[in-house]
Amino acid sequence: MALMWSELSVLFRRRRTIVMLAALALIPVLVAVAVRISSAGSSGRGPAFINQIAGNGLFVSLVALTICIPLFLPLTVGVVAGDTIAGEASLGTLRYLLVSPAGRIRMLVVKYIAAIVFTAAATVVIVVAGIVVGAILFPVGPVTLLSGGTISIGESVVRALLIASYVTVSLLGLSAIGVFISTLTDVPVGAMAATVVISIVAQVADSLPQLDWLHPWLFSHYWLNFADLLRQPIEWSSFGSNALLQLGYVVVFGALAYGRFSSKDVLS
Amino acid sequence: MSDPSLAIETRALTKKFGKQTVVNELYLSVPRGSVFGFLGPNGSGKTTTIRMLLGLASATGGEVNLLGEPMPRQLSGVLPRVGALIEGPGFYPFLSGAANLHRLDTADRYASGATRRRRVAEALDRVGLTNAAGKKVHAYSLGMKQRLGIANALLMPRELIVLDEPTNGLDPQGTREVRHLVRSLTEEGTTVFVSSHLLAEIEQMCTHAAVMRAGNLVAQGSLDELRHAGQTRVRVVTPDVESAERVFRALGLSPGHPEPTAHPGQLLDAEDDYALEAPLGDTLAPDAIVADLVAAGVRVRGFAVERATLEDLFVALTGEGFDVAQ
Ligand SMILES: Nc1ncnc2c1ncn2[C@@H]1O[C@H](COP(=O)(O)OP(=O)(O)O)[C@@H](O)[C@H]1O
Ligand SMILES: [Mg+2]
């Protein structure tokens, strides 16, 4: 437990982590400011979501998440997950943690949990920054859902956090892949880049109709399907199938990471 | 069966990287309570051996017993009793020295959180880093990092402390401090296993030593035993080389080639002096040699019995004084 706290404190005290979270918080701000400026001389162009913002500031979070999911979130998650083991190896701290002895399995588990906590923090930062900046720049009121009904402001904040948790769950698989890659190398930048590239390849594959047999198996397949959480009543099926898929990735890549790391010669 | 009087015991410990054998069938015996010097030129396999002892790297063959327990099977029970500095210090540059020690201490399940602050302060004090405790490690000099690495090994009371080249990057003053530290540790009953490529360092602080050469253990024992392993030689300076050689042979000695030499009291018109050397066995008394030389009419102008220094031994064993082998 002490190791878990220490891990989180090392992670969140790092300037790099703070900078990444700040950059993610900047995206809803940019979205809101851009809409504010352009809606002054409203042209009526752009996707439906974006146009909703002008009417209700609560939509800023949603738009910002949608923008972040394909690239910015996988990028930051790739950096954190890819750094987990390889980063300690390159600093030379891995050998000292292991002779403490931290225990190799314990080390992996702690590292993976820290990566998940970062993912959750990242999505929550986007959502909260979106709500705050939306409330400042636009009117805020009850939200009209996709299914037609309306929900109160309080309920819509809950829905926004629900979507944040959906996105966090969506990235569990990618984090597991990142941690596994991180056990393969002592060069953290390599593990980070490989993880990000894999997330992009998965999304490209998901958009190719020729590979439609593969689509349901791609960890990125459900990434943008959080709209079901905006129905009344909530449609949980995509949440469920997403969670199951991610669990599969966690099991497979967790086992690979364990297999690799438990027998690895630590020569860094 | 492991010998309970040994802190470290290896049997045929071997490590191969691909085809290269980096550590070859090592039989190490490190007695408890000793300061054991692990001596060898750079690249002779010291760090690799230490990594295997501590379960960081797996052995290609052979066995390791650490504090009487087989490694790496009993790793989680043994390593809390062992402190280590391996291949230089490794720290988070963006954290302070004290924060780094806190962090590494949390990894040890037996280290109590309640005493952590005190133990970190004590360890920092012991290596003289109290004033730099709050400084970020990226602002530390190499010597300070090295001390912090040693402090990390001292966070808990240990039965065995492994220090891999602990004086690397330290100035002479820092080196002396490390020696003091090692001495105070042994007074507390801790076994210290210290590697180095510098003989002088080992000679000054160790009770025992082992010498590595290109992955092979070429000598091992107490410093006295090692000194005795070096040959004694007898050396005579005389102008009468032929007669001296005859006397040596008659006594069963095998003299080397005579070397022309000068000695301080040499007369201007004197004949040239030669130095004649021969290895001396245990059976022959040096005074008997002098008596025979004089009886044979040899003018003995100098006579000495020289014991090979550890330096000579180290050079003979490793093929060079220091620096890279292979
Ligand atoms: N990861 C590795 N892969 C291949 N060879 C290695 C590796 N690490 C060390 N070696 C080789 O093992 C030998 C011994 O290295 P090392 O144990 O570090 O020596 P020492 O600590 O005595 O200087 C060297 O020849 C080195 O090149
Ligand atoms: Mg070394």
TrEMBL record, chain B:
InterPro entries given in the database record: AAA+_ATPase, ABC_transporter-like_ATP-bd, ABC_transporter-like_CS, P-loop_NTPase
Pfam families listed in its UniProt record: ABC_tran (PF00005)
Keywords: ATP-binding, Nucleotide-binding, Transport
Superkingdom of this protein's organism: Bacteria
Domain ABC transporter: 8-239
GO molecular function: ATP binding; ATP hydrolysis activity
Family: Belongs to the ABC transporter superfamily.
Name of the protein in question: ABC transporter ATP-binding protein
Organism: Subtercola vilae
